[in-house]
């Protein structure tokens, strides 16, 4: 199957077939190469592999057939030339940052990102003299005003975590390129089924494979997708040396997840839109955040940029943290966990979980109030999900 150009095939087919190389055993399913190292036929072959003169497997920290199949499949789905798989989503962001940036460089990052992403740019990279300016995701004047001569990277999530704000990727890509910077987009909430940032001008796509790419909450993993030259020259040297590698077993699990990704993302979006519409009609809900709703501030942009709204719905309840916790604690079926992207619906209180390590002022600036609840809507029966939420606020 190595002579097939997967760009000629639809996304659903790519998700099942792209990147597979059958061994001499002619297996139908993707095999797991559970080995730390690979054996060479001679000392000369070993030297040629290590020098790069001869392609082939060396050590699973940076060359493993199962991981490579996952990388090639995800690259095909995103429309990218290359993918580098990592041990987690945060490892993907850190690898991109350490590969692309050096002391004295500057980053502009959206406030509407996962809490650990904020802390990575603000605290960890700050220790290495990389400065970061945080701006509101949809304030394009603020993005432009934050740019400096030393700005090298613009980073954002769209839709954002947890308010599902939507940024104009093409507009920010143009802004970045006009100032000699790169644009990186975390595509975790949409996946390539619903949104392809590279086609809109982004340079790098980031994934937490732990989420929708797996879809079952089984394994940790991350990925970086982009142009081969960019990844090979700037990011791969860090991942090969630093070792934030995805394990072969996890890569195999993600390959199984990718096979159903298109079906799941469509079903997640249908359930989420129906739930968001219902939540808007409830008296105990102050506001619902979901790109598929006409009430969403960036609804028209989402219609142009995304194939559907995705599976994440956030909403604020009257009564602040006490009311939010009461609702969460009253549920019986929903999983109270900060993870997302599973077939099982999950619910969490961002202010005290995913964004708890931010200061109160930082949470306020990001719009994360005490009454905000984030749900990753799964594939259960919609009425069962509604009924679980009704336990705290019957009627």
TrEMBL record:
Reactions mediated catalytically: O-succinyl-L-homoserine + hydrogen sulfide = L-homocysteine + succinate
Gene3D superfamilies for the chain: Aspartate Aminotransferase, domain 1 (3.90.1150.10), Type I PLP-dependent aspartate aminotransferase-like (Major domain) (3.40.640.10)
One Pfam family cited in the UniProt record for this chain: Cys_Met_Meta_PP
Keyword Transcription regulation: no
Gene Ontology CC entries for this record: cytoplasm
Superkingdom: Bacteria
UniProt KW Glycosyltransferase keyword: no
GO MF entries: carbon-sulfur lyase activity; pyridoxal phosphate binding; transferase activity, transferring alkyl or aryl (other than methyl) groups
Keywords: Amino-acid biosynthesis, Methionine biosynthesis, Pyridoxal phosphate, Transferase
Function recorded in the entry: Catalyzes the formation of L-homocysteine from O-succinyl-L-homoserine (OSHS) and hydrogen sulfide.
HAMAP family: MetZ
Subunit structure as annotated in this protein's UniProt entry: Homotetramer.
Protein name in UniProt: O-succinylhomoserine sulfhydrylase
Protein's organism: Methylomagnum ishizawai
Native organism taxonomy: Bacteria, Pseudomonadati, Pseudomonadota, Gammaproteobacteria, Methylococcales
């Amino acid at each position: 199957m190595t002579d097939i150009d997967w760009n000629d095939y639809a996304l659903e087919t790519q998700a099942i077939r792209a990147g597979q190389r059958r061994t001499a055993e002619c297996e139908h399913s993707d095999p797991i190469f559970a080995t730390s190292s690979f054996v060479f036929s001679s000392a000369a072959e070993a030297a040629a592999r290590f020098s790069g003169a001869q392609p082939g497997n060396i050590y699973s920290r940076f060359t493993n057939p199962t991981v490579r199949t996952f990388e090639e499949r995800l690259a095909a789905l995103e429309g990218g030339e290359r993918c580098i798989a990592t041990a987690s989503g945060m490892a993907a962001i850190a690898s991109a940052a350490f590969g692309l940036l050096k002391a004295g460089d500057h980053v502009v990052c959206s406030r509407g990102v996962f809490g650990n992403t904020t802390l990575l740019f603000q605290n960890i990279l700050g220790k290495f003299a990389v400065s970061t300016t945080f701006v509101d995701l949809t304030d394009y004047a603020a993005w432009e005003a934050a740019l400096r001569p030393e700005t090298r990277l613009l980073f954002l999530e769209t839709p954002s975590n947890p308010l599902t704000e939507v940024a104009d990727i093409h507009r920010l890509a143009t802004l970045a390129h006009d100032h000699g910077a790169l644009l990186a987009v975390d595509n975790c909430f949409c996946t390539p089924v619903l949104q392809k940032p590279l086609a809109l001008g982004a340079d790098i796509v980031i994934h937490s494979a732990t989420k929708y790419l797996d879809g079952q909450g089984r394994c940790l993993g991350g990925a970086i997708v982009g142009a081969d030259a960019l990844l090979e020259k700037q990011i791969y040297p860090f991942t090969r040396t630093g070792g934030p590698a995805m394990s072969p077993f996890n890569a195999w699990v993600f390959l199984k997840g990718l096979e159903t990704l298109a079906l799941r993302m469509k079903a997640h979006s249908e359930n989420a839109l129906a739930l968001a519409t219902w939540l808007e009609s409830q008296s105990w809900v102050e506001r619902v955040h979901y790109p598929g709703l006409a009430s969403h501030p960036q609804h028209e942009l989402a219609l142009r940029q995304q194939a559907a709204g995705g599976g994440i719905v956030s909403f604020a309840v009257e009564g602040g943290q006490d009311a939010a916790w009461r609702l969460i604690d009253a549920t019986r079926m929903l999983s109270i966990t900060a993870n997302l992207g599973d077939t099982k619906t999950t619910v969490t209180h961002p202010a005290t979980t995913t964004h708890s390590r931010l200061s109160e002022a930082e949470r306020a600036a990001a719009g994360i109030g005490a009454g905000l609840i984030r749900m990753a809507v799964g594939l259960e029966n919609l009425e069962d999900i509604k009924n679980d939420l009704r336990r705290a606020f019957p009627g």
